[in-house]
Amino acid sequence: MTIGKNDREYWIHTMIRIADPVLGALAERRLKATMPVEGKLDDRPNYTHLEALGRLLAGIAPWLETGAADGEEGERRKRTAMLAREAIDAGTDPSSPDYMNFCDGFQPIVDAAFMAHAILRAPTELWDKLEERVRRNTVAALKATRMRKPFHNNWLLFAAIIETALYRMGESDWDPMRVDYALKQHEQWYVGDGTYGDGPDYHADYYNSFVIQPMLLDIVDKAGECYGEWNGMAERIRSRSQRYAAVQERLISPEGTFPPLGRSLAYRFGAFQTLAQMSLRRELPAPLIPAQVRCALTAVIRRTIEAPGTFDPGGWLTIGFCGHQPEIGETYISTGSLYLCSVVFLPLGLPADDPFWCGEAEWTSRRAWSGNAFAIDSALRRS
Question: What is the rounded average pLDDT of the residues 234-254?
């Protein structure tokens, strides 16, 4: 029990360390004035601030919504939730010096989608508690992304989750066609064994976890009630995510490392969003048990975040996979992009006495490479 408690405290400490520079600057409406913009293209300042806001909130939202209400954790959660609401205000208020770009270029649809995802994950803290003025500004910002069409790949889900959020916000002009198209295209792009293509082609990267599986899960959860055929997809989407989570758990080495495979490696342990989300949903597949997933993810977080150079002297994340490695950042990567790492923290939405936080258990690769018994793996029957 003590081990799990210590892990939870470590997760919260690490999450706050990542979040505080972004939320603190936005609360003072000084993000654009203070956040460094590391990247390879000169246009990144047009997009990086919305990236930082949307991506950070997408990961910390479950903790803001259902984290502890009392004690030291409760006080930290209340403070962070207040800062998050002030950050949304700063980013969506046209009179704010930190007003963000929601319509110029293609990138804003991506990060408005992450902000929308955060609101779906924390509807009380990040929507109901907003002032009416801020709600109007937020709706206007999300709708502004309709000026650009998404690319024919995982980007379809960005448009879909924005419309899902607008539906849950009570907007009568939300567009079910954008949701329907994204869901049906991804059904066609399913390649088997819990994995979707990123568009018509399979890509060996972590985008099934960065975007595809988590957004599919929450779209059908929040809007599936609208159409029987959407609701009918829910079980297939869930079972595929379970299989993908099982694969992800096996990718974590005994040392807490994982393969540097594919693009966007600068999102670091954000690569494990699907495993984190299935833990949050209490839907881990057998034979995984929650404690072994927590121990595996804790090993990844420690191995990653404690690498020298991960933070600059001001506490901002730097581009890299393990430390500061600017050469691995694609041209679309900048400082704000890096805050997608926060999605590993989704299980903090579980209470401290949940089995996820209790006890200790070895993860699969640690058992395997120690010569101990471990479960046989098997592919998911096509569905």
Answer: 98
Q: Which residue in the block uniquely carries the two structure tokens 């974590």?
A: 252
C-alpha span between 250 and 258 (Å, rounded): 9
Count the neighbouring beta carbons within 10 Å of the beta carbon of residue 49.
Answer: 27
Q: Other C-beta atoms within 10 Å of 233: how many?
A: 18
**Amino acid (1-letter code) at residue 341:** C
Nearest CA-CA partner of 111 in 99, 102, 124, 98: 102
Sign, Cα dihedral of 11, 15, 16, 18: positive
Q: What is the pLDDT of residues 272-282, one digit of tens each?
A: 999 999 999 99
Across-strand partners of 154?
A: none
- Residue tagged 């998050």 (tokens): 84
Q: Is the pLDDT of residue 289 over 80?
A: yes
pTM for the whole thing?
0.96
Task: Give, as one character, the DSSP assignment of residue 379.
Answer: P
β-sheet bridge partners, residue 39 = 334
Quick one: three-class SS letters along 195-238?
Answer: EECCCCCCCCCCHHHHHHHHHHHHHHHHHHHHCHHHHHHHHHHH
Q: What is the pLDDT of residue 271?
A: 98
Name every residue whose Cβ is closer than 8 Å to that of residue 74 and which is 6 or more positions away in sequence: 67, 68
Task: Tell me the sheet residues that pair with 186.
Answer: none
The answer to whether the beta carbons of residues 159 and 215 sit under 8 Å apart is no
Looking at the DSSP bridge assignments, the partners of residue 196 are 190
Q: Report the C-alpha gap between 89 and 80 in whole angstroms.
A: 14
- Spatial distance between the Cα atoms of 137 and 295, rounded to a whole number of angstroms: 41
